[in-house]
Design brief:
Blueprint lengths: L1 H12 L12 H34 L18 H29 L7 H6 L1 E8 L2 E5 L5 E3 L1 E5 L3 E8 L4 E5 L3 E6 L5 E6 L4 E7 L11 E7 L1 H8 L2
Parallel strand pairs: 1-5, 4-10
Antiparallel strand pairs: 1-2, 2-3, 5-8, 6-7, 6-9, 9-10
The structure holds copper (II) ion.
Length: about 230
């Protein structure tokens, strides 16, 4: 009975908006693509395995005709061994192509050029128990409220004043650790205008849940006006 109760729960959850899969930036959309792509490949493998499993269970079931005969004892099958080893290598290769390409593209260090570096908007992010400070190119500072322009590359310089935190705006991009004593760089490309919730994603102390912030993505004109440029 309890198991039956989970069915309406799943139906309810079907209406959920899974934020990371409904990304509002190029960075987040590429990351969501990788999730769907690996999920798709996994489903293909799963389908083949289940079909073969069902077929063999049926084909080699005990019947009145074969119930006294023992199956032949075979030792390895070169053809099959080569086939499934090759298939696994091929699948991993197919998975590796977009994974490496997107990871390389999203790495601010590997893919940065002077040109994008200069046209990008840089924001210093400091995490500390239990709030976030954002400081912008002209020295302006905000607490727990991040303001960035839409359709731009935003480069974040992440630092922590105490313990390890994790910078996360689920609708815009995946998490990145924020470490004390070492600056990490992260970039979000072409966010869409809107308001998005952010959260520290690393348990960093008793008031960790309070480490939330709001991100406002505004037009470049509004951003410059706000910044006082
Ligand atoms: Cu934290």
């Amino acid at each position: 009975m309890k198991k039956l109760l989970t069915i309406p729960l799943f139906l309810l959850l079907a209406g959920c908006d899974i934020t990371v899969l409904n990304a509002k930036s190029e960075t987040g959309q590429d990351q969501a693509f990788l999730i769907w792509f690996s999920f798709g490949l996994m489903m293909v493998v799963l389908l083949i395995v289940f079909v073969l499993f069902a077929r063999f269970v049926w084909k080699y079931r005990e019947t009145s005709l074969n119930k006294d005969t023992l199956p032949k004892d075979v030792k390895g099958n070169k053809k099959l061994e080569i086939t499934w080893t090759t298939l696994a290598v091929l699948l991993l290769a197919v998975l590796a192509v977009p994974t490496v390409a997107i990871t390389y593209n999203q790495s601010p260090i590997l893919s940065s050029s002077e040109e994008t570096e200069q046209s990008a908007v840089h924001v210093n992010v400091t995490g500390q128990q239990y709030f976030w400070t954002f400081s912008y190119e002209n020295g302006k500072e905000t607490t727990n409220k991040l303001i960035i322009p839409a359709n731009n590359t935003i480069v974040f310089h992440l630092k922590s004043k105490d313990v390890i935190h994790s910078f996360w705006i689920p609708k815009l991009a995946g998490k990145t650790d924020v470490l004390p004593g070492k600056e990490l760089i992260y970039k979000i490309v072409n966010p869409e205008e809107g308001t998005y919730e952010g959260q520290c994603a690393e348990f960093c102390g008793v008031q960790h849940t309070k480490m939330q912030f709001t991100t406002e993505v505004v037009s470049i004109a509004d951003y410059e006006e706000w910044l006082g440029k």
